[in-house]
What we know:
Elements: H1 2-17, H2 24-43, H3 51-69, H4 84-97, H5 115-125, H6 136-166, H7 180-184, H8 192-196, H9 201-207, H10 210-221, H11 228-243, H12 249-270, H13 272-300, H14 322-330, H15 332-336, H16 343-365, H17 369-387, H18 391-396, H19 411-433, H20 436-456, H21 462-468, H22 492-504, E1 510-513, H23 522-526, H24 543-553, H25 556-563, E2 573-577, H26 583-586, H27 600-609, E3 612-619, E4 625-631
Parallel strand pairs: 1-2
Antiparallel strand pairs: 2-4, 3-4
Amino acid sequence: MANKSKKSTPKKSKKSTNKPKVTTNSVKATIKNTDKKLDNAASVPLISNYAPVVGTAGVIFAFLFVFFWYPKELFSMPIQNYDSPFHFYAIKNLLDNGLGALFQIAPGEQYYPPLFHFLSYLFIQIPTLFGASMAIGTGTSFVWILSMGILFPAGMTKLTIEIMKDKGIDISQNPFVFTIPLIAVSFSSFPYEVLNIGTLYAYGFAVCFLPWVLLYWRRLMVRFDFSQKNIIWLIVILLCVLLSPPRAMFLILPLFVIDFILNIKKMYRYNKTLGKWTVIVAIISGLSTIAIVAYYVSTHLRSDLLYHPENWFQNINSSGNPIWSLMSWLGASAMLENTFDGVSTITLVITFFAFIFCLVTCIYRRSMREFVIAFIFFGLIYLCTTSFDNGFANIVTAPFYKNTWRITPILPIIVTPMVAYFVATISNILQRKIGSQTALLFGLFCTTTLLLTPLVNQENVSIAKMVSGQALIEPEISNTLAGENKNKLITTQKVELFMELQKNLPKDSYVITDPFAGGNYLYSLANVKVVYPIYNFKLAGTKEESILQALSSYNDEQILDNVCTYKDDSKNYYLLRLGKYSPMVYDAGSTPIYEILRDNNLTTKMLESGTIKLDSEYASGQGSKFKLYKFNCGE
């Protein structure tokens, strides 16, 4: 019995040693794991990842919003603004001369990035395969709507989802994904303002690629995913931007620099060799940029300007109040002007709190730093553009011509991820503290609010006004055809005149007319050749300059010698008087060299001397006449 008891004792002790020790740490770990499992179980959706489906639906709605906003008269007629005539001319030149003119679009053999014009050309050519035709305005409208309504919001959706993943937030099951593309197209500063103010067709087209550029750049610089696919796509998209106006890259370069600075330490940890070479390339790029600017300044500026940087690039005077300009950039002007109520006010508050939330997060958690810094940096450029005229302001605004509508297109790219981060973070907090249903309701509330904003406010695109302080954008752009207003660039009467000239003038005719008065549309709209199809090309050393100089001399013999020898294939040269120039074009800062084309004294003298003769008159709609004169170039 004693032996048995001895044997049973170690069995009990062995069994007792296998029992887990109950400690405070183990209890905490068990509770934490249990909570994590419960959170994961509560957050598992019926569909594991419906972000692509919901995001695609949002892009479709964004496209419909852009399409129905777009003024339908622009499918046939041009908008009233100073860039539009050039783009129409460039496309018309491609249609007449084929792809050989792709890289020599402007008069005087000037180069202009041709991608937008090329795509418009393709759209116009497609109906010809079926024996139909398409107006130039229709081609440009298709490219504009597809790029602004699909390419841009799709890029912003993809970019925003990936940014949230980089911040540790998965929004693949958040209904807010549906709203991301709608937010992207709800800024008046972009895409609508680039159409309404500057008719920056190609510049706006280039901006549509920037979310995709930033997407693949971040995959390389933030995630260090140097796969062949990412590198190739980044190169392809960068080429698309360079074949559109490459100046749009100035909008995204600060984000490149910010990402580089914030992630260089992380890159060294990832791969020291890669980090060293990246720093070397960055230093070389920076020094090269400084050298190029220094070379330009020293060789292209007069010596008396060398030490006056306030006059280096442009002399546009800024008259804005700094405080008001700053509030405009932040969006406060929308609230101060009392132009918002209802849903618009809610959207304004959401956007304002999104920025403040990201700013606080940036300070305490170092999250969304790149977008907060970019927002402040571009706010500084906006302030310099609108309020200051010193040398520093002139230099930092040089890439943007000191024009606000070339800076504000960055707003959707910066603000959209900040709003998404704000909504997603609050939604996740609600999910952990209250429950997934409350988080879902919050996401649906934000989605509905931001979706209804542009639809309820029929007279403007509201988010843009609150962030950029721009003027309200009307659904029907008011400066298309100007009806009876003779001061507009193109009017109904001028279009009718152009059609008459198309029918009546000989095919080999050339018309000299004031491009500031709408003459720069005569070629693109009516296929009538003009000597000055656009106003802003280089005249120095060209026959076009010689003709203007001859007209300014008032010398009849010199005038006929230059005009009648302009092209060897024609002896039919005309002078078309279209009345007063358009202030909106003339005041854009262009040279007054064309004033001789509206000189009444010159016209009277040439009539008296027989240099020209009156060919025909046309109604102008203002009680006066459009007059067409023919130069006496002989038979």
